[in-house]
Amino acid sequence: MKLYMHPASTTSRAVALFVMDNALPVEFQVVDLFSGEHLREPFVSINPNRMVPVLDDGDFRLTESSAILKYIAEKTGSPAYPKELQRRARVNEVMDWFNSNFYRDYGYGLIYPQVFPQHKRPSEEGQTITLNWGKEKTQGWLQILNDHIIGPDRSYLCGDAITIADYFAVAILQVGELIRCDFSQYPNIARWLANMKKRASYQKVYEVIQGFGKSLEGQKFVAVA
After folding, report:
1. What's the rounded Cα separation, in Å, for the pair 223 and 203?
2. Last residue of a domain, one of 13, 45, 76
3. 65 and 151 in one domain?
């Protein structure tokens, strides 16, 4: 299996950490997002969406990190994607919640408009409205994550064992560090995040995005604090 990815890509890191943590037989093919390699051939033929990650498995090609995580976990028989129906359904539910609810407001409504020029709104008024909305919605989602999805007793998102939902979610949540989000008022989230950062491959997978974060030091951001 080959994974087209880039370490600066949030959704690439979700898959990369799972692969590296479990020493899975997946080759990484870096697509240079900064030079626009994803916007031209041959990559456009690989993924017309012009996005990473993409998984290539012989004559089968798959996009979307959530689907890729499920496919790799299923193919390799990983316990991180439980086979028991209700436990697997819970993993799917949490991944969908992050993708459909949390990431929309947190990533695209709060973080990305502040750190990526192509996501910034064309007027100052539009930018302010977007960030205020994104922050308010994010705080609501974080409270749900803290109180109900993780709660005081769980080590991971779906119980006491790590699942692909944790790999997917930590990639999304970590991006908030770019704008210096502080999760201390959400103790269950902070505990879970610290637990995920102890994974053997975490520092290697996240070193590029952490370096980018350092380049933003000194800038002022609207953040969860």
Report:
1. 24
2. 76
3. no
CA distances from 143 to 57, 152, 186, 190, 225 (A): 39, 13, 7, 12, 13
Pair 183, 189: CB distance under 8 Å: yes
Query: Tokens representing 12?
Result: 């690439």
Same domain, residue pair 209 and 132: yes
Q: Are residues 182 and 128 in the same domain?
A: yes
Q: How does the average pLDDT of the chain come out, rounded?
A: 97
Say which CATH number the domain at 7 has.
Answer: 3.40.30.10
Question: How many domains is the chain partitioned into structurally?
Answer: 2
Token readout for 209 is: 């995005």
Q: Residue 82, preceding bond cis, omega within 30 degrees?
A: no
Query: 83-107 burial, b if ≥16 CB within 10 A, otherwise e?
Result: eeeeebebbbebbebbbeebbebbb
pLDDT, one tens digit per residue, over 186-221 is 999 999 999 999 999 999 999 999 999 999 999 999
Look at strands 27-30 and 2-5 and give their pairing.
parallel
For residue 193, give its domain range.
85-215
Backbone phi and psi for residue 149, each to the nearest 5 degrees, phi listed first: -80, -50
